[in-house]
Structure formats: structure tokens, C-alpha cells
């Protein structure tokens, strides 16, 4: 295999492992790409391979998604849940389009910022995880629309790489009254329109710079992200219900600190 092909496979595995846990998959991809010397046209690789992780979630939740769709015509609760996901998605859709150029050309190209955000996010996650607050909501389907909208605005913080889309939505939901399992589950469902929208828009914006080699690397990363994403989604809910998010917080802090040290050393 060519060196770039191997790196694409490794980054695909990292995407699948980190997309749905609150450690910032994009931050990990950008830092690894920086240290491994991997460049993608328009930084499209880091966004487009997320489709693999998205398909992982669709596969794991296919039965539940189908059931919600079937219930929607006659069940107000199902319609409210769909509306909550769409309402939570709207802020990212608007801000993502308006800030796309700045995100790609400035934020994605600042590894020091990514490392700092990993560390700060880790400490915030530790603090939220240890708060002794009785949850109000035990099911993602029960989140009211105003709460969903607030989670959607909080998700927009993840446009800064290193923050973590899942981390922002989970922390936001926890602070607004969700328990640990329902916070993760709402993050899963919100990922579907968010990641699909990011994929479609980025593909449109970069359609002229993607050559055969770039598309090949994206396809490899996509496959590995899909496989590892399925494993993570199946495992995560049970883990966080029992043990919370401290493991991921410490991982963020360690990875961010190591990255800062490496960057300070000129790597």
C-alpha cells in the first residue's frame, strides 16, 4: 500500500473510534494529519469520511429510526422527537454555511488551538460529569423543543476543532437536565442531519479540487470509519450509563498536552 493509503486507513479508524465519543474526531484527525504530514485538498478528507461514521449510526439505529418514521403520522411524541432533532440541527446549518471558509482556512490550520481546546474541553467534561444533579430527562425522545434548540446552539461550538461535536451536545444536554445515557443518545440522533449536511456542503464546495487520489483516500477512510464506528456506537451507551465520561475527559487532557509539547518542540 502507498504511504498516503495507509495513513488514510489509520485516519479512518481514528474517525470511527472518536466521532461519537466526546474527544473531537476532527481534532484528532487534524493533529494526526499534521504530525504525519498528510494533506487533503480543501481539508475535505477530514469532513467527507464522516459519512462512514454516519452510516454506522444509521445501521445500528435502523430499526428505531424506522419505528419513529412509522409512528410519526399518528403519534405526537414521535413527531415531537423528529422536530426536536431538526430544531437542534438548524443553528449548525446556518452558522456552518456562513463560517465555512473561516473554519476551513483558519481554524482547521491552527493545531495549537486544537490542542488547547482538547485540554479545556477535558476539564469541562470532568466538571460536568462529577456534578451531582438529579436528571430531569431519561429519554432522548422527551427533550422539549426549547432544550433541543439550546443543545443545537451549543453544538455550534464544535466548529472549533478540538471542542468535539458529541462532547458539546452531551455536555449541553447534561447541563440542561438529561441523564448520561439520553444525552449520548440525543447526540447520536443529532449527528445524522448534522454530519449529512456537513458532508453534502463540503463535497459541493470542494468538488473542483478532488482528484482521483483524494477520492481514493476518502473511500478508504470512509470504509474504516464505518467499521469502527459500528463498534463504538454499540459499546458507548452501556459504558457511559455505568461509568460516565471521566475516561474521555482524561484522554482529551493527555492527548492535548502531548500535542502541545510536540508543537512547542517544533514538530
UniProtKB/TrEMBL annotation:
Membrane-related topology note: Multi-pass membrane protein
EC number(s): the record gives 3.6.1.27
Specify where it is mainly localized. membrane
Where on the tree of life does the source sit, at the highest rank? Bacteria
A Pfam family assignment: BacA
Subcellular location field: Cell membrane
Asked whether the keyword Ribosomal protein is assigned, the reply is: no
**TM spans, by residue?**
45-65, 77-99, 106-128, 183-201, 213-237, 244-265
What keywords are annotated for this sequence in UniProt?
Antibiotic resistance, Cell membrane, Cell shape, Cell wall biogenesis/degradation, Hydrolase, Membrane, Peptidoglycan synthesis, Transmembrane, Transmembrane helix
Against InterPro entries, the record matches this protein to: UppP
Signal peptide (residue range): none
Any one GO MF annotation of this record: undecaprenyl-diphosphatase activity
Q: Which GO terms describe its biological process?
A: cell wall organization; peptidoglycan biosynthetic process; regulation of cell shape; response to antibiotic
Its family remark reads: Belongs to the UppP family.
What more is known? Bacitracin is thought to be involved in the inhibition of peptidoglycan synthesis by sequestering undecaprenyl diphosphate, thereby reducing the pool of lipid carrier available.
Please give the function described in this protein's UniProt entry: Catalyzes the dephosphorylation of undecaprenyl diphosphate (UPP). Confers resistance to bacitracin.
Q: What is this protein called?
A: Undecaprenyl-diphosphatase
Look up and give the organism this protein is from: Paracoccus aestuarii
Lineage, highest ranks first: Bacteria, Pseudomonadati, Pseudomonadota, Alphaproteobacteria, Rhodobacterales
Amino acid at each position: 500500500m502507498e504511504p498516503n493509503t495507509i495513513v488514510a486507513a489509520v485516519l479512518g479508524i481514528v474517525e470511527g473510534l472518536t466521532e461519537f465519543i466526546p474527544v473531537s474526531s476532527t481534532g484528532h484527525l487534524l493533529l494526526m494529519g499534521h504530525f504525519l504530514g498528510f494533506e487533503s485538498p480543501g481539508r475535505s478528507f477530514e469532513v467527507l469520511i464522516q459519512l462512514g461514521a454516519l452510516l454506522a449510526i444509521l445501521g445500528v439505529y435502523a430499526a428505531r429510526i424506522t419505528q419513529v418514521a412509522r409512528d410519526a403520522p399518528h403519534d405526537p411524541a414521535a413527531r415531537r422527537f423528529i422536530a426536536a432533532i431538526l430544531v437542534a440541527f438548524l443553528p449548525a446549518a446556518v452558522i456552518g454555511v456562513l463560517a465555512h471558509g473561516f473554519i476551513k482556512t483558519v481554524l482547521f490550520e491552527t493545531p495549537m488551538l486544537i490542542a488547547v481546546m482538547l485540554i479545556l474541553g477535558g476539564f469541562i467534561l470532568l466538571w460536568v460529569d462529577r456534578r451531582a444533579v438529579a436528571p430531569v430527562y431519561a429519554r432522548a425522545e422527551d427533550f422539549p423543543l426549547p432544550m433541543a434548540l439550546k443543545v443545537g446552539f451549543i453544538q455550534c461550538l464544535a466548529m472549533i476543532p478540538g471542542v468535539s461535536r458529541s462532547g458539546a451536545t452531551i455536555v449541553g444536554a447534561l447541563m440542561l437536565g438529561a441523564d448520561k445515557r439520553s444525552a449520548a443518545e440525543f447526540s447520536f440522533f443529532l449527528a445524522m442531519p448534522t454530519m449529512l449536511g456537513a458532508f453534502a456542503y463540503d463535497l459541493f464546495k470542494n468538488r473542483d479540487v478532488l482528484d482521483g487520489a483524494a477520492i481514493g483516500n476518502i473511500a478508504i477512510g470512509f470504509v474504516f470509519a464505518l467499521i469502527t464506528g459500528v463498534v463504538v456506537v454499540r459499546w458507548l451507551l452501556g459504558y457511559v450509563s455505568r461509568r460516565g465520561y471521566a475516561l474521555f475527559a482524561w484522554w482529551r487532557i493527555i492527548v492535548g498536552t502531548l500535542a502541545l509539547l510536540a508543537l512547542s518542540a517544533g514538530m
